[in-house]
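User: Here's a protein and a ligand (adenosine monophosphate). What would the complex look like?
Assistant: Let me lay out the input and then the predicted complex.
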Amino acid sequence: MNIVLLGAPGAGKGTQADRLVEKYGMCHISTGDILRAAVSEGTKLGKKAKKFMDAGDLVPDDLIIDIMRERLQQPDTEKGVILDGFPRTTTQAVALDGMLTSLKRPLDAALLIDVDPEIIVKRLASRRQCKDCGYIGTDADKVCPNCGGEMYQREDDNEKTVRNRLDVYQKSTAPLIDYYRGCDKLITINGEKTPDEVFADVEKALNL
Ligand code: AMP
C-alpha cells in the first residue's frame, strides 16, 4: 500500500505514521526527518537545506525530488510506503506520480489529516520529540514515555516560524488537496480528535 499523508505541520502526520509502522510494519518516509538528519550530520544537503528550514520555508523542489527518487529505489520501500511531508508542492506531486508509475507502484490514497490552524499553533508550541527514538509528545513529557530518552523542542516549532510554515502550507501545499481530489485519491480525516481516535479513523478509511 502506498499512501501520501497530507495536512498542515502539526496535524499529526508523524504520529499516525508511527502507529502505522508499529502496527502494520509499513515503511515510513519523512522528508523532514531526512533533512533534519542531514542538518545534524552537517552534510552538503544539510548545509543547503538549513536556512530554508530555520525560516520555515520549503527546501527547493529539485533537492527534495532527488532525495525521494533515490529513497524510493531502496528495497525496504517495495512493499509500500507512507509518505509524510512529501509531496508539498504540485511540482513534487507530479514528480511523485512519475516515479510511482515508473516503479509500477500506484498510489492508493492521499490521506488528509484536517486540523484548524489555531489548534495547530497551540499544539506546535507544546510539541516535544525524543532525541533517541523520535517519539512525538508534549511539554508534559519530561522524559520520553517510550524509551526514557531526552525530549527536545524542534528549532522550527517557535511561534514566528510556525506562522510562516502555516502560510507556506496554505499557499504551496493546500492546493494538493484539490490535486488528489481530482485524481479520486483524497480521503479526509478529522485530526482534532485524540491520536487513538484519529488512528481508528485512519484504519477504517484504509480498510486495514
Ligand atoms: P516537517 O518535519 O515535515 O514539518 O518538515 C520540516 C521542514 O523541512 C519544512 O518546514 C521544510 O523546510 C523542509 N521540508 C520537509 N519536507 C519538504 C518537502 N517535501 N519540500 C520542501 N521542503 C520540505
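Summary: The CA atoms of residues 42 and 50 lie 9 Å apart.
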